[in-house]
Structures are given as structure tokens and as C-alpha cells.
Amino acid sequence: MGYPTDLKYTKEHEWISANGGTATIGITNYAQESLGDIVFVDLPKVGTDLTAGKTFGSVESVKAVSDLYAPASGKVTEVNGALATSPENINKDAHAAWMLKIALKDPNELNGLMSAADYDKFVAEEGGH
Amino acid sequence: MSAVEVTPNIRKTALNAVHRQMGAKMVEFNGWDMPVEYPSAGGIIAEHNAVRTGVGIFDVSHMGDIRLHGPQALAAVQHISMNDASKLGIGQAQYSALLYPQGTFVDDVIVHRLGEDDYLLVINAGTREKDFNWVRDNTRQFDCKVENLSDDFTQIAIQGPKGVNLLQKLTDADLSAVKFYWVTRVTRGTVCGLKNMLIARTGYTAEDGFEIYVPADEKTSAMVWNKVLEAGKEFGVVPCGLGARNTLRLEGKLPLYGHEISDTINVWEAGLDRFIKMEKPEFIGREALEKAKAAGLKRTLVGLEMVERGIARDGYKVWDDSGREIGYVTSGSYAPFLKKNIALAYVPTEFANVGSTVKVEIRGQGVKAQVVPTPFYKRPKKA
Questions:
Q1: Cα dist. B100→A23, A31, B72, B283 in Å?
Q2: Which site among B34, B36, B45 would you substitute to test the A interface, given the most A Cβ atoms closer than 10 Å to its Cβ?
Q3: How high is the pLDDT of residue A2?
Q4: What distance in Å separates the CA atoms of residue B38 and residue B24, rounded to the nearest whole number?
């Protein structure tokens, strides 16, 4: 599928969208498809410091538990509270159902992440999608 | 997330190509390449709820089958199993288990009495070879033939309240005459156009339903699978994978080998008392179980419902309120029909009362859970 070109992607299947010094984070459509029905999301509180590449929470489907990895470092400024009661929103539209907004520590960190085209190629190799 | 690794000696059922054509997500389960869910059918939650409210079908050909027949077949079955097979009429089935001398589980089984001296044991996929060897080695003293028929059948489970309506469309046998936990060979008439088909009113979903035994060739298997799907359209039938099979059996507190029962857990601990017949004078494991009963129970299987946010998973530790480790979770999941996070766990008997609170360790945190009555789900009685 064509992934949105205004986002950046990680090998752990998170997306990040930066707007100046703030960024929005979620998981990709490939991730939600692999997980299946998502029934639980565990996210950090506002004010938590994320470190790029480190886990910041988890997402669970009926079958599987999967860690979430921070695409970039920064402080959590907002959490999508709707996901606590409606985690299935991620299955419906993974790129709309954002998880966190963060104040980026260093916007340059995003340069090391994959573009939509690179991510497309990456998931094609990983799962044959 | 990591990709599923495919082991070189992975086995396939006769319906493997059909599952793949239907876009099933496949996983390795006990050495078998099996569908875990069918995204086209809506995935695990939709599959689960179809079985609770309508009908779903499963390929369960990975299950094994052992036939014992001959003049001393009953004596052999009685020796190796904990339930009382002498109570079975011809065409009747019972839940039972094969035990080690120490009273722990070789496996749980369904014993079907097919004829006068003819029994069929249906066993788990992961324990096929172990079970067959155990049965063969422990019945040598009896005048009875032991056959491994595991590769002879494609086993299709048709489960849910509409299962009987679906299957009735495909056979001229009167299914209302086949009661729950009875089995019949359809000799007058056919099933999906096939003669001599074995159909059992059994399952692993805590619903009414049937399991049918189809010749294991790919062509016949696919023909039957497709006919069942076609006939089930008016009932909203969906194909179901192992994911839904697991959540369905968990809601019904049906044990799974390697989880609620194993070679280190005895029958009393597993709470399967009503399937063990201590009045039988002899069977493997009986002596140890008599002693274990006299010694008293130290741990027992309980149902947990999460009170705080979190899902208990297999292997997670159970703590008391002070954070001391007291037991472990054997199975845990979001329960799609009950819409709760539930689990089965072994805990010391003093924590087993309904209403007791414990904690489940989830990613290092103690998350509150409560002991609740089981089964979590019981199918409604027919009006």
C-alpha cells in the first residue's frame, strides 16, 4: 500500500509526524494488520520523557503483546485518551489513531528514520505485504 | 513485532491450501502450519462472536485419533483413562484423560465408543506421538488392537447454536437424534454426499456443535469445507482459526494441554474431579491420586477477572496483595464475547475463594484481579 509521505517510519512499525518542535506518534497500518484486533493500549503519562529507540508502552491484540518504541526523544505533551476505551480505532485507521504528541528534543533525530517509500520496501521484504 | 519462523518439518493439514486461498493468517502451532485467524472473516473477535451467536467452522485436523478395538478394548481403555468408559453406550462419548502413575496428565482425551468393542480416543496435536506410544505401551497385556488413525481424517468442527441447522442441510441423518457428546456413523444416507461419515456432537468452544471426520485427501476435504461454508451462508457462517478457538475455550474454562494441564499438574489441582471415577478399582494414576487427595490440595486452578487495566497472559506471575509471588497464569486474554480481561491461574487454595483479590504482574507492575466463578461463560439453556 502507499504509506503517507508526510510521515517518517521506524523498523518497529511506528510512524511519526513532525510539525516544528512537536511530533505525533502512532503505529503503522502494517503493524495493526499484523497484530489483528487490538484490545489494549498502554501509554505513558503526560510529562514522561521518551528516548529514541527505547520502549514507551505496549499495544495488545487478542493474541499478541507488542512493545512500542519511541521514534524520537522528547517529552509527552498529550495522550490520545480515546484509545483507552476504543483501542479498535487503531485497526480502523492506524494513521489517524495517534497515540502521543511529544515536544521533540532534537528534530534532527527524524532524519535517521525511513521515508514512506523506504518503509514500503521494508515491509514488503518483511511480510510480503 | 517479528515475523513468524517456519520450521523445516512443519506439518500441513489437507486444507492448508484452502486456508491460504482464503487469506488466513498462518502460524506454527505444535509443529503444524495452522490458520490463526481469517482477516476476511473479520478476525478473531468476529470469529469468536459468530460461534457464540451463530456458527463458525474450524479445521482441527491436527488433532490425533487412536482406535482401540478387540475383545478387551474396554478393559484397555479403562486401564489407561480416568473416566469410566463402561458407562458409555454405543455411540456415546466422554471427556477423560490419560494419566501418568503420579496422577499428572499425559493428555486429556475424548473417548468415543463406536461399537461393541471399538473405541476412538481423540487427542491433542502437540502430544500425538507421545500419546500413541503411551497407549500402545500400556495396553500390551490386553487382547486389543491399537491403531494410530491420526492421518486418516480431516476433522472439521462446526460450532455454535446454528451448527445443527447448518449440518442438517448437508445430511439426511436426523441430527436431533444425536445428543450432546454422542457420535454416529451415518450408514443410512450421506453427509456432503459421502457415505459412512463419522459425526460427533462435540467441540472445544463451550457451544453446541459437531465435529465431522472426513477422508483426509485434499480434494474431498476441500469439497466438504466449501460445502459447509456454502450451506452456512444463510446463518452467517465464518471460518475460524486457532485464535478464536483459544478464546472460546478459555471463556468456557476448557483446559489446554501445556497450560491448565500438564505432566506436573494433577487432576485435583486442575479441578477436573467430575471426570475422574475413583470408584473404578484400577487405572494408571489412581493410587497417586488417592494419596494426593488424602494429603490435601495445595494449589488450585481459579478464574480471574482483571479489576484494573491490563491483560494477564500465559506465564505471568500472580502476587498476593503484598506483592509476594503465589502462583502463575496458565491462560489469559481479552474475552471477546464477555468483553472482559480474564485468565486462569494456579494459586494456593487459601486464595481460591470467589471474591479474593490478587495481583498479576504485568510488565513489572502488580495489576489487581479478582477470583470469579467459572466457567466464565456458560451457554444458555435451550428454551
A1: 59, 44, 21, 10
A2: B45
A3: 78
A4: 4
> Is the distance from CB of A28 to CB of A95 less than 8 angstroms?
yes
What's the whole-number average pLDDT of chain B? Answer: 96
Dihedral, CA of residue B131, residue B137, residue B143 and residue B148, to nearest 10: 40
CB contacts < 8 A, A to B, total: 49
Amino acid identity, position A118:
D
CB B305 within 8 A of CB B250: no
The pLDDT of A81-110, averaged and rounded, is 96
Q: Which residue reads 502507499 in cell numbers? A: A2
Question: Which residues are CB-contacts of B189 (< 8 A; sequence separation ≥ 6)?
Answer: B171, B172, B173
Distance CA A57, CA A69 (A): 8
A31 and B CB contact within 8 Å: yes
User: How far apart (Å, rounded) are the C-alpha atoms in residues B369 and B308?
Assistant: 7
Cα–Cα distance measured from residue A74 to residue A82, given in angstroms and rounded to the nearest whole number? 22
d(CA B139, CA B27): 35
Which of B29, B48, B247, B311 is the best mutation test for A, with the most CBs of A within 10 A?
A: B311
Distances (CA, A) of B299 to B265, B266, B270, B328, B345: 10, 10, 9, 11, 10
What pLDDT, on the 0 to 100 scale, is given for residue A62?
96
Q: Which helix (H) or strand (E) holds B359?
A: strand B357-362
What average pLDDT does the segment B125-142 reach? Answer: 96
Residues of chain B with Cβ-Cβ distance to A40 below 8 Å are 309-311, 334, 341
For B40, the grid coordinates are: 476476511
